[in-house]
Amino acid sequence: MSVLLRSVTELCPVYSPFFGSMGITASIVFTVFGGAYGTAKSSVGISSVGVMKPEFIMRSLFPVVFAGVIGLYGLIVCIVLFINVNKSEYSLNRAFLDLGAGLTCGLCGLASGMSIGISGDCGVRGAAQQPKLFVSMLICLIFSEALALYGFIVALIMAATGDNSCVATASTSSSS
Q1: Which domain holds residue 147?
Q2: Which parts pass through the membrane?
């Protein structure tokens, strides 16, 4: 069993990993909540379609697929943040960036899941009654999914940038 020895300084306090871990938790918890809500809400519409027109059930599964992808965004961000937290040097600056990245991905995923659930429920019911609405439903789902994708991209940028140094550097600037 190996023990991770961290350097503890003013820039890298012992509690820094707590904030990074909260980012990891927020990322997976909120994206899974969003995906679960989107799946549950759109499943109500799919069940209704199954009673009215059973031949449309397979076409009605798109909202469930879109909602499931949201959880994958959270999982990927969790893995990236976990790699950051498990480094021997973990600055408070890096920890706050990781917390922000987790919250960004998680809350965008939650909003996206809610949007997918509501538009998916109404969309599959409407498309069962009027098949011309199917393309409109897909466009609504794509833009709803894009909300989670935006949060995912911003979270990856936040996780990849920032200073993780535990040593203060003196910057010298020359003025003319």
Answers
A1: 16-160
A2: 18-38, 63-83, 99-119, 137-157
